[in-house]
Amino acid sequence: MLIVPENRIAELVTPEMAFAAVEAVFAAMARGEARNFPVVREALGHEDALYGFKGGFDRSGQHLGLKAGGYWPHNLERRGLINHQSTVFLFDPDTGKPTAMVGGNLLTALRTAAASSVSIKYLARPDAKVLGMVGAGHQATFQLRAALQQRQFEKVIGWNYHPEMLPNIAKVAEGAGVPFEAVSLDGMRAADVIITITSAFAPSLMAAHVSPGTHLACMGTDTVGKQEVEAALVAGATVFTDEIAQSVSIGEAQHAVKAGLLSGGQINPIGAVINGAHPGRSSAEEITLFDGTGVGLQDLAVAAAIVDLAVEKGIAVKVDF
After folding, report:
1. Rounded to an integer, what distance in angstroms lies between the CA atom of residue 28 and that of residue 15?
2. Tally of helices (H runs) and strands (E runs) in the chain
3. What is the pLDDT of residues 116-129, one digit of tens each?
4. Nearest to 86 by CA among 121, 55, 47, 64
5. Residues forming the active site
6. pLDDT value at position 223?
7. Which of 130, 188, 213, 315 has the most CB atoms at less than 10 Å from its CB?
8. Cα separation of 299 and 296, whole Å?
9. Contact status, residue 143 vs residue 112, Cβ threshold 8 Å
10. Rounded to an integer, what distance in angstroms lies between the CA atom of residue 157 and that of residue 193?
């Protein structure tokens, strides 16, 4: 069994690697060659933490396994650790034997950013110039770096529940040579692409804040009850997702579905656009929305690529298990 510890992941994984792995997984899912297993996600009743498992099997890539982990909201303030903690386990699909254990914290951040980046590549207008960010925490910086690779953005605008955190994303934008401006939620109407990446349980972005032709990547909702955008905004958009079952049950679409404003049959897999089975955006005025719920197959694909590179570089630790 191979072990790739968290402290070696940064020297192995790149945003480009994560993007390629996630894009391929979405395509395999749409072809019916890969499937995710039902998500287990529970409150521990300890440290206010959420803990769970995401897993699946990609027959085309021969990736079998799961990610175990969750969210400990007091880690940063009490222990100096990031709040999201996870580990990926890979298994041999032919025998069931464990083959690798991979640190999942940076991996998760990069695969989540890659997912929204894939949606921008396939769904945002080609002439998109202004990128809006709703959220300015740790994950927002990864989202912004990945998004800036997909279009020639000329400006980044941002809003956050806690404005004092906006310098986090301002530094990323300005480091990429793109000016940044803090705005009100009404100011988001200037954006051509909007990424929402918060942990909110009540909507902040409303339909009135979004202009025709905008592409939204809603990346923060992955649990029952979470919500970043108004249900009417979701219902008024053409909705795409990583996995329809998760979008309906734990994703941003859950609220529109519960309200009877949207059905699962109206939600499209992003992989169908990648494969050419769905045309994607149909007009310059259409609002498109990607509901990024986070699927286990993303983690497995990126972890497998990391293991291969770790072996090649002599970084993987081999143990007799």
Report:
1. 20
2. 11, 18
3. 999 999 999 999 99
4. 55
5. 67
6. 87
7. 188
8. 5
9. yes
10. 10
